[in-house]
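FAQ

Q: What does a record look like?
A: Structure on top, sequence underneath. For example:
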C-alpha cells in the first residue's frame, strides 16, 4: 500500500495556513492513490524532548552497551525513524519562525537524522544518506514573502536548511511551496480560504506528481 507521511508543525489548528494547505495536499493525494494511506504526524501534539547527553551517548555507541536511560532517549527516534522510512512519500507543512524552522521541527529532525539509521559516516570522512527513493513536498507558511530572486530571499534560512538536511539523509526529490503574506489573514484583510486558494494549484500539482 502506498503511504504518505504528513508532518504538520503549526500549533494554530484551524487558523493555520500550512495545515489548511497540507489538508488540501492530502485530499488530492488520496484521490490520486486509491487505497493509499496517510499517516498523520502532528508535531504540535508529539512529545519531543531535545537531544541531551543520554541521547548523544547512546546514538554514537553500540546498542548492546546502552543503559535504560539511554535506551529511553533513543526510543522516540526509533519510532519516528521507522514511521519515516516506512512511508513512500513525505509532506512537511511548517510555519517560518524567525526566518527558520520552528524549534519543534528542529527537535524532530535531531531525533531522526541519526548515524547508522538515516545517514552513515564513511571512512574517508564523507557521509552517505541512507534514505533513498522518497519524494518530499515542503509547504512553508510565513507572514512575509521570501520568493526566489526577491530581496527578502536572503533572510530565508528555512528553505535552504530543509533542502540541505533532507539531501543529507538522501532525499533530493523535494518540492517547496511557499505560502507568504499570511499577515493579511491575521489582520483580517483577507480570509484564510482566499489566501489558501492562491496556492491550491501548486498544491494540487505537487500532490499529483
Ligand atoms: C514565533 C514566531 C516567529 C515568526 N517569525 C516569522 C518570520 O521570521 N518571518 C515571517 O515571515 N513570519 C514569521 N512569523 C509568522 C508566521 O510564519 C505566520 O503566521 C505563518 O502563517 C504561521 O504558520 P501557520 O499559519 O501554519 O500557523 C512568525 C510567527 C511566530 C509565532
Amino acid at each position: 500500500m502506498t503511504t504518505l507521511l504528513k508532518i504538520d508543525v503549526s500549533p494554530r489548528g484551524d487558523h493555520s495556513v500550512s495545515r489548511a494547505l497540507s489538508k488540501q495536499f492530502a485530499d488530492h493525494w488520496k484521490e490520486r492513490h486509491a487505497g493509499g494511506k496517510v499517516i498523520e504526524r502532528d508535531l504540535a501534539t508529539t512529545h519531543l524532548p531535545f537531544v541531551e547527553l543520554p541521547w548523544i551517548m547512546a546514538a554514537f555507541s553500540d546498542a548492546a552497551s546502552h543503559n535504560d536511560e539511554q535506551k529511553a532517549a533513543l526510543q522516540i527516534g526509533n519510532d519516528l525513524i521507522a514511521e519515516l522510512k516506512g512511508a513512500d512519500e513525505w509532506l512537511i507543512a511548517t510555519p517560518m519562525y524567525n526566518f527558520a524552522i520552528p524549534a519543534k521541527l528542529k527537535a524532530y529532525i535531531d531525533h531522526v537524522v541519526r548515524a547508522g539509521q538515516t545517514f552513515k559516516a564513511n571512512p574517508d570522512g564523507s557521509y552517505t544518506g541512507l534514505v533513498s527513493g522518497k519524494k518530499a513536498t515542503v509547504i512553508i507558511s510565513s507572514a512575509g514573502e521570501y520568493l526566489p530572486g526577491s530581496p527578502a530571499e536572503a533572510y530565508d534560512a528555512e528553505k535552504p536548511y530543509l533542502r540541505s538536511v533532507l539531501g543529507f539523509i538522501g532525499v533530493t526529490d523535494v518540492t517547496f511551496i511557499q505560502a507568504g503574506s499570511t499577515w493579511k489573514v491575521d489582520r483580517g484583510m483577507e480570509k484564510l480560504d482566499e489566501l489558501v486558494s492562491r496556492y491550491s494549484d501548486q498544491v494540487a500539482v505537487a500532490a499529483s506528481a
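Q: Is there anything notable about this one?
A: The chain has one domain: 3-208.
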